[in-house]
């Protein structure tokens, strides 16, 4: 006798089953993340230390130096966190487990949600911790419009997640991912004004900055912290656009699996 | 249960499947044998809906693989487990993905723990398991929801005796419960023990199918006699018993050793290798 799993077709039952599977996948991926927390911890602790060290420099060099040092380092180290997302997805290829999941009853959308939800929460949490630290320790004024700041964090984390997934879908090895995410993160975040305030950068760099998602993230977060809703929305829309394009490509690629090729 | 007809699959210039056809009935174990590159794994991947054939079609219970997601249990050839996750956590994950809930999930885990002898290491992480233990865990994740179709791709490769025994017992039991099973292997005696129908794949197609007896019938065995511990006589024959009697009746000197080698699946395998090489 084959076992009756209780699975029944029907919209409500199907939705309940879908939520059940996503929860199972999210729990599973949370366990994996919690058992290997080193990278995440370093991307929280390092910007905290740098904020303390660089704050006097920023305050002397530019107006609103406290806001800029907190948001700048937040953006920089959240960009580094792309590699957390990328590695987590790429690991499924290294372990050859992604195809095991694809064979299961869970459709690709559920697999991706279950896989990325814990990473998304990690990224959101990282930014919340850094902003809270900025307010409590560095002296960043407590933002007047908390929902606007939260919305900005959610949008930025979503963008990073999509870029991380895209990288994981196209690179051939962890080495490639490491090179691309480290060099890319440093370039995008510093070019975007996350390391050195934009006003101190050469003219060409100030123009080129607008090509970097880090620039728009910085504009969005600084506007949100200042309570400037109008100034927050344009960068948020641009980042969402980037996220949707990167995410769509990653979903398409991951849905089909990696095949047999590649270095892994 | 499973019907694959005229599958063709090409990877660039490599023709992996070239008119591959195979059917498996409910309760039947089909042992899929063949050399590396014969198309076994590609076939398994198509049935699992991991890849699509260039042409031909597959049905499982009369429906395409896309409509049977989750109803096929697959244990791939390579180990595909999460290093930082315990055996129990693997079973919980794959059980839940298959739709099992509390009591049913607990009961399935309990049953597989006993059947595949996982008890001693069920709370250990995969990274700390031996190769044989990993094989058993992988099989358990494929079996957890009692799928109607099981694709076991070399489930005992490199495994120890305990793993092999446990695996064969479970496979027999699941077939007895009505599951259709495709069992690829290079260990041919396992297929005899499983009383499997044997399908031989070569160059992307099935070239022979039948019971063990049917397939080895007609293959030459060998009779070997040694006279006075010195002179050796070897006769290749399709009828070893009759040949032996004939040789004994004509023997003029004392015989110190008699060996009769009946044709086996290994001979079948070797004969295919010879045809391949030629």
Automatic annotation (TrEMBL), chain A:
Organism from which the protein derives: Acrocarpospora corrugata
Family named by the database record: Belongs to the ABC-2 integral membrane protein family.
Record InterPro entries: ABC2_TM (IPR013525), ABC2_TM_bact-type (IPR047817), ABC_2_transport (IPR000412), Nod_factor_ABC_transporter (IPR051784)
Membrane topology per record: Multi-pass membrane protein
Molecular functions per Gene Ontology: ABC-type transporter activity
GO terms under biological process: response to antibiotic
One cellular component (GO) term of this entry: ATP-binding cassette (ABC) transporter complex
Alphabetized UniProt keyword annotations: Antibiotic resistance, Cell membrane, Membrane, Transmembrane, Transmembrane helix, Transport
PROSITE patterns: ABC_TM2
Domain ABC transmembrane type-2: 34-257
Signal sequence extent: none
Top-level lineage group: Bacteria
UniProt protein name: Transport permease protein
Cell location: Cell membrane; Membrane
Transmembrane segments: 40-58, 70-90, 120-142, 148-171, 183-201, 221-251
Automatic annotation (TrEMBL), chain B:
Gene3D superfamilies: P-loop containing nucleotide triphosphate hydrolases
Compartments (UniProt record): Cell membrane
Domain ABC transporter: 2-228
One Gene Ontology term of the molecular function aspect: ATP hydrolysis activity
GO CC terms in record: plasma membrane
Keywords, ordered alphabetically: Antibiotic resistance, ATP-binding, Nucleotide-binding, Transport
GO BP term, pick one: response to antibiotic
Topology within the bilayer: Peripheral membrane protein
Top-level taxon of origin: Bacteria
SUPFAM superfamilies on file: P-loop containing nucleoside triphosphate hydrolases
Keyword hit for Transport: yes
Major subcellular site: membrane
Family membership noted in the UniProt record: Belongs to the ABC transporter superfamily.
Annotated protein name in UniProt: Daunorubicin resistance protein DrrA family ABC transporter ATP-binding protein
Source species of the chain: Acrocarpospora corrugata
């Amino acid at each position: 006798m084959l076992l009756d799993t209780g699975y029944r077709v029907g919209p409500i039952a199907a939705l309940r089953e879908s939520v059940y599977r996503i929860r199972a996948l999210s729990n599973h991926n949370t366990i994996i993340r919690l058992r290997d927390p080193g990278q995440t911890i370093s991307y929280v602790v390092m910007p905290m230390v740098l904020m303390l060290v660089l704050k006097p420099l920023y305050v002397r060099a530019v107006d609103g130096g406290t806001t800029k040092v907190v948001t700048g380092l937040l953006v920089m180290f959240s960009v580094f966190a792309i590699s957390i997302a990328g590695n987590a997805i790429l690991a499924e290829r290294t372990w050859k487990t992604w195809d095991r999941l694809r064979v299961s009853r869970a459709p690709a959308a559920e697999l991706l949600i279950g896989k990325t939800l814990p990473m998304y929460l990690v990224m959101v949490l990282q930014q919340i911790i850094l902003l809270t630290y900025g307010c409590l320790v560095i002296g960043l004024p407590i933002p007047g419009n908390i929902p606007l700041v939260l919305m900005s964090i959610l949008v930025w984390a979503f963008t990073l997640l999509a870029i991380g997934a895209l990288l994981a879908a196209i690179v051939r090895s962890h080495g490639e991912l490491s090179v691309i995410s480290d060099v890319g993160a440093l370039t995008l975040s510093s070019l975007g004004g996350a390391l050195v305030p934009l006003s101190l950068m050469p003219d060409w760099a100030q123009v080129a900055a607008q090509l970097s998602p880090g620039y728009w993230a910085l504009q969005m977060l600084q506007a949100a912290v200042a309570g400037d809703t109008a100034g927050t929305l344009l960068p948020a829309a641009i980042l969402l656009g980037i996220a949707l394009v990167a995410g769509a490509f990653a979903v398409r690629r991951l849905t089909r699996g990696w095949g047999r090729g590649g270095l892994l | 249960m499973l019907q694959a007809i005229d599958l063709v699959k090409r990877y660039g210039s490599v023709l992996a499947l070239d008119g591959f056809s195979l059917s498996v009935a409910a309760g039947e174990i089909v042992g899929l044998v063949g050399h590396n590159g014969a198309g076994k794994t590609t076939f398994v991947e198509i049935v699992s809906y991991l890849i699509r054939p260039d042409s031909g079609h597959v049905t499982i219970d009369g429906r395409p693989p896309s409509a049977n997601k989750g109803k096929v249990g697959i244990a791939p050839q390579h180990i595909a487990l999460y290093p930082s996750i315990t055996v129990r956590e693997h079973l919980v994950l794959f059980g839940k993905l298959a739709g099992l809930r509390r009591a049913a999930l607990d009961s399935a885990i309990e049953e597989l723990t006993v059947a595949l002898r996982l008890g001693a290491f069920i709370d250990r992480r995969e990274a700390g398991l031996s190769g044989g233990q990993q094989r058993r865990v992988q099989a358990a994740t494929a079996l957890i929801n009692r799928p109607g179709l099981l694709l076991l791709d070399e489930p005992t490769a490199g495994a120890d005796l305990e793993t092999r025994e446990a695996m064969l017992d479970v496979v027999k039991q699941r077939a007895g419960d009505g599951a259709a099973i495709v069992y690829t292997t290079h260990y041919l005696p396992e297929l005899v023990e499983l009383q499997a129908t044997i399908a031989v794949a070569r160059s992307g197609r099935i070239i022979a199918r039948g019971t063990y007896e049917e397939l080895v019938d007609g293959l030459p065995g060998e009779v070997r006699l040694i006279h006075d511990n010195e002179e050796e006589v070897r006769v290749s024959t399709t009828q070893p018993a009759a040949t032996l009697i004939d040789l004994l009746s004509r023997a003029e000197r004392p015989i110190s050793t008699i060996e009769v080698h009946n044709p086996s699946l290994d001979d079948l395998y070797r004969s295919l290798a010879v045809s391949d090489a030629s």
